[in-house]
Design goal:
- This protein has about 425 residues and is an alpha+beta fold.
- It is built from 5 helices and 12 strands.
- It has helices at about 30-40, 65-70, 80-85, 215, 255-280; strands spanning about 10-15, 20-25, 45-55, 100-110, 115-120, 125, 160-165, 170-180, 190-195, 245-250, 355, 360-365.
- The longest helix has 27 residues, at about 255-280.
- The protein is globular, with a radius of gyration of 38 Å.
- The N and C termini lie far apart (about 85 Å).
């Protein structure tokens, strides 16, 4: 039997107008439907006034109040993705025609009446100096950046303030590109209605009631799309919502079709980036040759941590050093025979025939033979005893309890860890 998880998503448009759309989304998960709602509200870029410079204000409203009202005025943002840049991506220093739009408002009342200052008084002023270069201007419409509904009889303007005779309002505005996660003024939607399970068959909510919840909580228009709840119907604990009712109302900066399509594209991009990030972590090779990935401290890891031929491991001694991509020295507990053995993190050549090199400090040996240790170097007896080696190249490295040279050797007459 085919379940709704295996079916293709279905979108059925019930109503479409200039500034809103009502549709039904079926055969999708609740997480996807809610993610789509959030993306439509907060992740679609638009243009809005971001800076206001007040030159003259003799109205009854303070500057901050007027600046906030102007910032909430919706501006036409059709094809905003390609028509304008983010200011952080532009090469200009203080704004240009490719990353910002300048608007001016200069209104004064000279008659004995109450004058309304609306969004129709905002005028777009083109930039004179071309600091940057690009093709964003060719992708804009004629009314890009203008207040929504300007000079249209069927769209009422947005009221900014009211002035009387002798009062004046003069200011300069700069509009920029942004998303609603930064500020709500960049949201292209004024409302997004989202509903599922109108009869509460899944018991996703609890109705407060006095006598009968069915009479006190009447169902909406979306209940006509589903069957009513029967009194003898058994509750299904495994049931999930499969039909969602959307109504997206825009503020006019973008059309409802552009909002829906850009919302789906943005959600698809977010999911693709998430899958790519997870794939990079799971596909990272744990062994192998040169894969182009660097390891700790910039070293390239080798297959299975196998040291090269002729080199020792952490607890071995070799003729020419070993370890973890050390230039010419041993690992943390290795020592080179006949020459200076290298430490784990830094290696410096010895001065004589034999030398001792440690991880952090290097102590040149005075005689032939030497040993390398973790922190200090001493070509002397270990904790367990033993005679020092005097022959050339007779350097051996052992554990803490061996009779050979140790990692943390005790001082002798020849050399100690930090003082000769």
């Amino acid at each position: 039997m085919q379940t709704y998880e295996d079916s293709e998503p279905i979108v059925r448009i019930r109503d479409y107008k200039q500034d809103r759309v009502n549709f039904v989304l079926e055969n999708v998960d609740l997480a996807f439907a809610n993610s789509f709602r959030r993306v439509v509200q907060a992740d679609i870029p638009t243009v809005a006034v971001d800076m206001v410079e007040v030159e003259a204000n003799t109205t009854v409203l303070p500057d901050e109040f007027i600046a906030h009202r102007i910032g909430m005025v919706p501006l036409v943002s059709t094809n905003c993705d390609e028509g304008i840049r983010y200011t952080r991506d532009c090469t200009c220093l203080s704004g240009c025609q490719y990353c910002s739009i300048e608007l001016r408002l200069d209104v004064s009342c000279n008659d004995n009446r109450t004058m309304e200052v609306t969004s129709n008084h905002l005028e777009v002023i083109p930039y004179q100096d071309e600091v940057s270069s690009g093709d964003e201007l060719t992708k804009r419409g004629e009314d890009f950046g203008q207040p929504v509904g300007k000079n249209k009889a069927d769209v009422p303007p947005v009221l900014i303030c009211k002035i009387r005779k002798g009062q004046e309002l003069k200011l300069r505005c700069v509009a920029k590109k942004g998303i609603a996660k930064e500020h709500a003024k960049w949201s292209p939607c004024s409302a997004v209605a989202f509903e599922y399970d109108p009869y509460n068959k899944l018991r996703h909510t609890t109705y407060w009631h006095e006598a009968d919840p069915r009479t006190e909580w009447p169902v909406g228009e979306n209940a006509k799309e589903e069957e009513a709840l029967r009194d003898d119907e058994v509750f299904d604990f495994n049931a999930k919502p499969r039909k969602f009712y959307f109504e997206v109302e825009t503020d006019g900066s973008l059309g409802p079709q552009e909002v829906i399509m850009k919302g789906l594209a943005e959600l698809q991009t977010k999911l693709a980036n998430l899958i790519l990030g997870l794939k990079q972590e799971t596909d990272m090779p744990l062994s192998g040759g040169d894969t182009g990935l660097t390891g700790v401290n910039g070293h390239v890891p080798t297959a299975g941590w196998v040291p090269p031929s002729g080199s020792g491991t952490w607890g071995q001694s070799a003729a020419s050093g070993a370890g973890y991509a050390s230039p010419a020295g041993g690992g943390w507990g290795s020592a080179g025979g006949g020459g200076g053995g290298g430490g784990g993190w830094s290696t410096s050549p010895t001065q004589n025939t034999g030398g001792s090199t440690s991880a952090w400090t290097t102590s040149p040996a005075q005689n032939s033979g030497g040993a390398s240790s973790g922190w200090a170097t001493s070509p002397a007896q270990p904790w367990g005893g033993g005679s020092p080696h005097t022959g050339s190249g007779a350097s051996t490295t052992g554990g803490w309890g061996s009779s050979a040279q140790q990692g943390w050797g005790s001082p002798t007459q020849q050399a100690s860890g930090w003082n000769l």
